[in-house]
Amino acid sequence: MIRGPRERFGPAVAVVAVALLLVTVVGAWPPLVAVESGSMEPAVERGDLVVVTAVDRFPWSEPVGSDADDPPTRLDGAGDVVVFTSPVDPRRPILHRVAFRVTAGEDWTDRADPDLLDGADCTDIATCPAPYDGYVTYGDANGEYDQSAGIAPVVHERLIHAKALVAIPHLGHFQLAVDAAVARFGVVPAGVGILVAVSLVSGTGAFLVGRVREGWRTRNDRKGGRRPPR
């Protein structure tokens, strides 16, 4: 049986359509972020897929920290969880929780949780006093602020790309595998390999579905006393 383009590439087209719909709704690209580390465990683990939305998307406003009087609840914790770029390693966006907002020149350790400073004070931290308005952030599992640990400086608002909404367990492993393939083989070879794999998987799925339907039709014909067509 010859499979047409629809049967071969139908699932791939459906995936692209869902991705475009997500971009339209959440206003961020990519709308799904695969988690590479365990810094946000136990709510978010490595290999989870996180749905994100643009920071300025209705009804959101600027990120709200865990120190707010009535902070939003995000991913089993208080305060917004955001995706931002760190100048320390711009190639790897960070998904961490907002602790509080700071203003330029502020000694923000006065408002910090001592347990998350690991004994440091303002003189020990490169971005204290705050060099500009921004946010202090942390990973739930790290036990220390990103700024005191040297993971990132005070996060400027222009470096924040999105807010995290919900985590889907384990579905991020595919994206991590794709990223690894692109890093190793390049965009074009990895893209060709992915298209071939999608075609094979979708074609195999269509073939199996067709066989199941044919089997059910044959069985029903036999029950009705009719001979199956040759």
UniProtKB/TrEMBL annotation:
One Gene Ontology CC term in the entry: membrane
Transmembrane residue ranges: 185-209
Keywords linked to the UniProt accession: Membrane, Transmembrane, Transmembrane helix
Pfam family, one: Peptidase_S26
Peptidase S26 domain mapped to chain residues: 14-98
PANTHER family documented for this protein: SIGNAL PEPTIDASE COMPLEX CATALYTIC SUBUNIT SEC11
Name this protein carries in UniProt: Signal peptidase, endoplasmic reticulum-type
Organism: Halorubrum cibi
